[in-house]
Amino acid sequence: MNVLFHIDESSRWNMALGNIQNMIRYMEDQAIPYQIELVANGPAVCELQDSVSEKLGLKEPLCSLSPKIRICACRNALMGNHITPGRLLPFVDIVPAGVVEIAQRQDDGFSYIKP
């Protein structure tokens, strides 16, 4: 199963991470192969900064998920929020445009979830 999670609101991080953790647990318990991608755009890219994620208690869950899922930040949103790539958590991939990444993944057959 291929699933794309989309987050663009900073207030939705805990819900998104909880949804992803629950999905992974289910998939692994049922021995279902999966590929999960999380795309952050808009203001939600701010929480992918190392210092911000640590301050908000998001760093540990993001780090624990990073080997199992792909975590992406929209370059346009980073520029709009004046965030340089060096401030991001080291495992975050930067995509040129979050909306294009979302559309491409849906075209690839990923199910779209926006917590």
Automatic annotation (TrEMBL):
This is Uncharacterized protein. It comes from Anaerostipes rhamnosivorans.
